[in-house]
Amino acid sequence: MLYRKYRPQVFSQLVGQEHVVRTLEGALSSGRVGQAYLFTGPRGTGKTTIARIFAKALNCADFGKKGTILPCNTCEACLSVNNGTSLDLIEIDAASNRGIDEIRALKESAQVSAPSGGYKVFLIDEVHMLTKDSFNALLKILEEPPAHVVFILATTEPHKILATVLSRVQRFDFKRITPAEMVTKLKSIAQAEKIQIDDLALLAIAKSSDGALRDAEVALTKIRSMIPSGPIGEKEVADVLGLIPISYHPKLLGFLASGDKASAVALIHTIHDAGMDLEHFTKEFISYARSALLSRVNPTLSASIEGPEAHQQFSALNTIDNEKLIKIINTFTLARSQIKFSPIPQLPLELAVMSL
Ligand SMILES: [Zn+2]
């Protein structure tokens, strides 16, 4: 699996979550380490990865030495975390260990100092899954944690965490990784693995992953195993992942911009005949048209959504004014809501094209 092989081992290898990394690095360099952290955010955005790097840095032989990059990944403590043999980092998956006995065992373990004499780090993943009793027991430990213990609680559902727990932790909200950030990472993996894949194909993978980098890396693994000899383009990605080629979006917008209704309707038929989901296509198309509109007021934002290449496509659309673009977005948003109830699925889209 590529995502395991290329899991970041130091903070500088991470993409996204700069706000989290900066604060944790600050804690490490000043030596002011908190005793309880809460990492919240969507799956696949780096919570466990960052927790492991932080845990490693805390017990790294270089910890406390000013100006050194942590973790070193060469000392014994670092290597044991990398091998999964560290006794100082205890990982608990609360989804399968949610009972009171597990938390009692955790409490006992927390009283015992770390074998290395450094920090003992407890990483509790999916912490919202703990039972009520377990949560209360955990809270007791968080109220008076032994000095050598650091808790990192991770969750995809922060709204399920009790306010009493929230008041005891330093909270970090992890963001979805943007497609542009993902492309950077996927590109570096592709280069290292000598995978022949073009930028548009990487962007298609990134956009299909909804902010979860791990999903994108899993998708890349899958595509490589299906097409081992390459080259991989957008079409191959769309075929393997069952996606609609993203080149269809600029194509349709281009037809609408130039008022070529015949080609627009023909494209809708092609998509439907190929067995693609029209509702899904329309959603993606609306998102694309929105980015085209955004690119006029905020090019940086639209580039982070659609990738830098999209800017050229957008500037080719300058025959179309803002007002028309807004009308297209509104018309297709309405059409999308009608697809489900239409006797002929492509009819609402055809009517949308005609009415523009
Ligand atoms: Zn080290």
TrEMBL record:
User: What is this enzyme's EC?
Assistant: 2.7.7.7
Which Gene Ontology terms of cellular component type are present? DNA polymerase III complex
**GO molecular-function annotation terms?**
ATP binding; DNA binding; DNA-directed DNA polymerase activity; metal ion binding
Reaction catalysed by this enzyme: DNA(n) + a 2'-deoxyribonucleoside 5'-triphosphate = DNA(n+1) + diphosphate
Quote the CDD domains the UniProt record gives. Answer: AAA
Gene3D superfamilies recorded for this chain?
A: 1.10.8.60, 1.20.272.10, P-loop containing nucleotide triphosphate hydrolases
Which enzyme class? transferase
The UniProt keywords, alphabetically, are: ATP-binding, DNA replication, DNA-directed DNA polymerase, Metal-binding, Nucleotide-binding, Nucleotidyltransferase, Transferase, Zinc
Gene Ontology BP, a term? DNA-templated DNA replication
- Domain (AAA+ ATPase) spans 33-178
Q: Name one Pfam family in it.
A: DNA_pol3_gamma3
InterPro entries xrefs: AAA+_ATPase, DNA_pol3_clamp-load_cplx_C, DNA_pol_III_gamma-3, DNA_pol_III_sug/sutau_N, DNA_Rep/Repair_Clamp_Loader, P-loop_NTPase
This protein's assembly is summarised as: DNA polymerase III contains a core (composed of alpha, epsilon and theta chains) that associates with a tau subunit. This core dimerizes to form the POLIII' complex. PolIII' associates with the gamma complex (composed of gamma, delta, delta', psi and chi chains) and with the beta chain to form the complete DNA polymerase III complex.
Report the family membership.
Belongs to the DnaX/STICHEL family.
Q: What is the role of the protein in this entry?
A: DNA polymerase III is a complex, multichain enzyme responsible for most of the replicative synthesis in bacteria. This DNA polymerase also exhibits 3' to 5' exonuclease activity.
In terms of NCBIfam families, this protein maps to: dnaX_nterm, PRK05563.1
> Could you tell me what this protein is called?
DNA polymerase III subunit gamma/tau
Q: Which gene encodes it?
A: dnaX
